[in-house]
Design a protein that fits this description.
The complex is a heterodimer.
Chain A lengths: L2 E4 L4 E4 L4 E8 L3 E9 L6 E7 L4 E4 L2 E6 L4 E6 L8 E9 L6 E2 L3 E6 L1
Parallel strand pairs in A: 2-11
Antiparallel strand pairs in A: 1-3, 3-8, 4-5, 4-9, 6-7, 7-8, 9-10, 9-11
Chain B lengths: L4 E3 L2 E4 L5 E6 L6 E8 L3 E9 L2 E4 L8 E7 L2 E6 L8 E11 L2 E7 L3 E5 L1
Parallel strand pairs in B: 2-11
Antiparallel strand pairs in B: 1-3, 3-8, 4-5, 4-9, 5-6, 7-8, 9-10, 9-11
Chain lengths: 112, 116
């Protein structure tokens, strides 16, 4: 069966450290993968998109990697800040479709 | 700054009642999505439209749910009759398909539905 797995346990890190979140998928052939941030009581907000033929994408303190052999994406936040505390969702789109399938998200807590 | 709007933000209703949720997508976006989010199931796609035509509603219970786009500025999701298991947050999102590719989706604030 198709699955997108994100660590369901919250990730607690100290301010200034790098947070690394994992997204693993099975039985998908994604054309591209996206990462969203969701704060309590709000809708998800787009952060980064990476295509199947890209290995890495960066935006300010954010970095996403995509390994289609391992079927895994890693999401990094460098120099993390308490304001980065939120739930982070990965989502993928298969070729020929336009909709996203979301993982369940990982909650990140950055301690001051 | 352009954003997706949804009404109502909160809805409490009794089982068996009809519920209608509305969404105004970002002007110029040609694709609209409806998602449902619960603690147990996470964020699930219910239906989506492109240029107002339904493309996929396979995630939606057809016997009680219906989704429409009467015009480019309004999408509706209706539940009739509602059941307690429909309690969730319903999100609308819009996006732009260019050259066959959909880029990021912009989500509304959601409608929190409670069916008692």
């Amino acid at each position: 069966s198709q699955k997108i797995e994100q660590n369901s346990e919250a990730l607690n890190i100290q301010e200034g450290k790098t947070a690394t979140l994992t997204c693993n998928y099975t039985n998908y052939s994604p054309a591209y993968l996206q990462w969203y941030r969701q704060d309590p009581g709000r809708g998800p907000v787009f952060l980064l998109l990476i295509r199947e033929n890209e290995k890495e994408k960066r935006k300010e303190r954010l970095k996403v990697t995509f390994d289609t052999t391992l079927k895994q994406s890693l999401f990094h936040i460098t120099a993390s800040q308490p304001a980065d505390s939120a739930t982070y969702l990965c989502a993928l789109t298969e070729a020929g479709r336009r909709a996203l399938t979301f993982g369940s998200g990982t909650r990140l807590q950055v301690q001051p | 700054d352009a954003r997706v709007t949804q009404t109502p933000r909160h809805k409490v209703t009794e089982m068996g009642q009809e519920v209608t949720m509305r969404c105004q997508p970002i002007l110029g976006h040609n694709t609209v999505f409806w998602y449902r989010q619960t603690m147990m199931q996470g964020l699930e796609l219910l239906a989506y439209f492109r240029n107002r035509a339904p493309l996929d509603d396979s995630g939606m219970p057809k016997d009680r749910f219906s989704a429409e786009m009467p015009d480019a500025t309004l999408a509706t999701l209706k539940i009739q009759p509602s059941e307690p298991r429909d309690s969730a947050v319903y999100f609308c999102a819009s996006g732009l398909v260019l050259a066959g590719e959909l880029y990021e989706q912009y989500f509304g604030p959601g409608t929190r539905l409670t069916v008692t």
